[in-house]
Each structure stands twice: as structure tokens, then as C-alpha cells.
Amino acid sequence: MSCAPPGDDGDGWDRIPDEPDGSIRATPTDPRKLREKLRRSGFAYLQRYSASEAHFFELMEKKLRRWEAAGYVALGEASVAGLVGDLTSEFRELGLLDDAGFAASRVASARRKGASRLKIALGLRAKGVDGNLARTAIEEEGTDEMVAALRFCRRRRIGPWRRGERPDRDGLNREIAILARQGFATQLGRAVVLLSLEEAEDKLGAI
User: Fold this and answer.
1) Which of 70, 73, 115, 167 has the fewest CB atoms within 10 Å, i.e. is most exposed?
2) Where in the sequence is the domain holding 153, given as residue range(s)?
3) Is residue 32 part of a domain?
């Protein structure tokens, strides 16, 4: 189901900038107009970006605070939480906010780039995605951790895709450390960097 932003009703609200510029001040007294302004702003954001419910709530709350600081609105704590909470619930019901879909999309994109399970889980947590939901999305995506590490090595041109001859022990340890900083286990990193290019390509080609 889709949601269209309400049109400009001629009251001047659409001329209020999202980033206050210190010019015109306005203090609307009609809560409906404030809700519609916030709704338009939230819809515009979700047309360009995906977001979890928690992250969307945080963004809209910050937007209201900016409007309030600039003198456009006068709100209390309860009003801010209520407005943003109602908008978040509305957009969830409309299908514009879907944490399970958001997590699945993020996991798939990150795995294609060679991200580890740990890095993905931390990234989803930072976006406010529930830990159980994040784990489920990672499990259902199904990419093997070695495959992800190989994809990362291919992007970074290390391990089997390094240029030149295999480095000495110190050089190999540096590559293992790079993988460890990305969240891959040390034992897995060691196994990956010791693969030949042919072996690595065979493993990626088998999926």
C-alpha cells in the first residue's frame, strides 16, 4: 500500500525550511497542520532512504526539535513523542516502515560486499533493529562466513587476490589483522589468506 503526501493547503507551511535559516518565524496553533507538515517530511525521507522504525523515530524527533529551536513550533516532551510515535505507527501500517524488510535488505547488500556477521549485526543495532530480528535476517540470508571473507578480500585485493607473490609471515599477519578488524575470526582469516587464487575462485564459483 502506498502513501501520498498531502498537498500544500496554502497556509505557508511548505515554505518552512527543514533546516532553519534564521529567517521567517512562525508558531502554528493548529496541531493538524503540524502533523501534516511532519508527515510530508517523513514521507519525503522514506522516498529516498530506507529506515528502521527506531531510526525513523529518532530522525523525526530531531526534526521537530530543530523546528522548535528555530521558533517555528512550541512543543512539550509528550507532544513530540506523541506526534512522532503516531507517525511511525501510521507509516508501519502503510508498509513504509518494515524492520524485517529493512534488515533483510541491509544484510543482503552487506554480504554482497563481503561484510562479516559481526559487522552486519553491529550496523543493524546502530540503526535500532532488534537483535533477534537481526540474527534472523543474517541466518535467512545464508551466506557462508568464508564466502563473505573471500568477497571482502577480492574487493580489497588482499589474500588470494593480492598483487605479486605471497608475502612473508608478517605480511600474512597484516592481512589476517585486516580481516579481524572487519569482524572475521582469526582462524578463518588465516585460512582465507592462505588460499590460492584458483582455490578462492572455485569456492566463490560454487555458490
Assistant:
1) 167
2) 145-207
3) yes
Q: Where are the alpha helices (DSSP H) in 49-76?
A: 53-69
What 8-state DSSP symbol labels residue 19?
S
User: How many domains, in total, are found in the chain?
Assistant: 3
Would you state the torsion angle of the CA atoms of residues 142, 145, 151, 157, taken in this order, to the nearest 10 degrees? 170
pLDDT, one tens digit per residue, over 55-106 is: 999 999 999 888 888 777 777 666 888 899 999 999 999 999 999 999 999 9
In this structure, are 138 and 195 located in the same domain?
Answer: no
Instruction: List pLDDT tens digits, range 11-42.
Output: 333 444 554 444 444 455 467 788 888 999 99
200 shares its domain with 153: yes
pTM: 0.78
